[in-house]
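Researcher: I'd like a candidate sequence for this fold, 260 residues long. If you have to choose between options at a position, lean toward the conservative one.
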C-alpha cells in the first residue's frame, strides 16, 4: 500500500488513522514505498496513548515509566523483575487495527528499569505533588498562577513530550508483541527526534545487523521493514566518539505492525 504523507497528514493520523489514510490519498506530498506489513496496523506512537499509560504502574505520574504487569485481580502492579520479565511491559500501546502492540522499553547497561515519559503541560510540576488515594502515591500536580491545585490530574490522559532513557549510555528498544500471539516483525517508517542529541538506529533485517545515522534532531523518514526489533542509541556514544552527558530524546515513531 502506497500512502502520501505530509507533516500535517501525519499529525492528523495520530487521532484518526482511517481519516488520515483518506486525507493522505488526497494530499500532495512525498509518496512512500509500499509497506511490507499488512494494512490496518499503522500508528504514530507519541507516548501519549491513554491505554498504554493506564497500564503503566501509577500511570507514570512522576513521569517515570517502570516495568509493570497485572495481578490476579486485574490491578496494574510493578513487575517482580525491575528490568522486565515474561508477562511484563513498560510502554505498550495498541497499533491501529493490528492484533499487536508497540512495545517500547529501555536497553541497559545502566538503567534498564525505567523510561522517562515527561509531561508536555508545563503546569504539571513535582512541587505540587498530588495523591488521589488510589495506592499509586504522589504524582505531579497542577500549578497555575503560582498556586497548586487540590485536584489531581488524570495522568493517563495527560499528553507526554516523547520519551528518553536515563543516561546517554542507555538505549531505547522497539518491538511489537501480543501475549497470546508472541512477537512479530514490523516496519519502522519514520521518527521525530527531540532535544539536541543525534541518534544511531540499529536493527536486524532477518539476516544482518543494519545501522543508520547520525539522525539529527527533527523528522526523518526511515526504510526499516520486517524487523523483529530496533534500537535507538546516542550516536556519539555508540561509535565511541565521546561521552557527552544527556540521553537521546524521541518524540514519536511511525510503526506498521501486522494487520488484523
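Model: Candidate sequence:
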Amino acid at each position: 500500500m502506497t500512502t502520501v504523507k505530509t507533516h500535517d497528514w501525519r499529525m492528523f493520523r495520530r487521532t484518526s488513522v482511517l481519516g488520515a489514510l483518506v486525507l493522505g490519498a488526497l494530499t500532495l506530498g512525498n509518496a512512500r514505498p509500499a509497506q511490507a506489513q499488512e494494512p490496518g496496523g499503522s500508528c504514530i506512537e507519541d507516548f501519549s496513548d491513554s491505554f498504554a499509560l493506564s497500564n503503566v504502574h501509577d500511570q507514570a505520574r512522576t513521569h517515570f515509566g517502570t516495568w509493570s504487569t497485572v495481578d490476579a485481580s486485574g490491578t496494574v502492579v510493578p513487575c517482580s523483575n525491575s528490568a522486565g520479565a515474561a508477562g511484563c511491559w513498560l510502554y505498550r500501546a495498541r497499533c491501529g487495527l493490528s492484533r499487536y502492540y508497540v512495545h517500547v522499553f529501555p536497553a541497559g547497561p545502566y538503567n534498564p528499569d525505567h523510561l522517562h515519559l515527561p509531561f508536555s503541560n508545563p503546569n504539571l510540576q513535582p512541587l505540587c505533588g498530588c495523591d488521589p488515594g488510589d495506592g499509586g502515591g504522589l504524582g505531579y500536580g497542577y500549578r497555575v498562577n503560582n498556586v497548586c491545585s487540590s485536584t489531581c490530574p488524570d495522568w493517563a490522559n495527560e499528553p507526554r513530550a516523547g520519551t528518553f532513557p536515563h543516561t546517554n549510555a542507555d538505549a531505547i528498544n522497539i518491538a511489537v508483541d501480543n501475549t497470546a500471539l508472541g512477537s512479530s516483525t514490523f516496519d519502522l517508517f519514520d521518527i521525530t527526534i527531540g532535544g539536541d542529541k543525534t541518534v544511531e538506529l540499529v536493527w536486524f533485517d532477518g539476516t544482518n545487523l543494519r545501522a543508520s545515522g547520525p539522525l539529527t534532531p527533527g523528522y526523518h523518514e526511515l526504510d526499516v521493514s520486517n524487523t523483529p526489533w530496533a534500537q535507538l542509541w546516542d550516536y556519539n556514544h555508540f561509535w565511541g566518539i565521546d561521552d557527552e552527558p544527556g540521553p537521546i530524546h524521541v518524540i514519536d515513531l511511525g510503526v506498521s505492525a501486522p494487520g488484523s
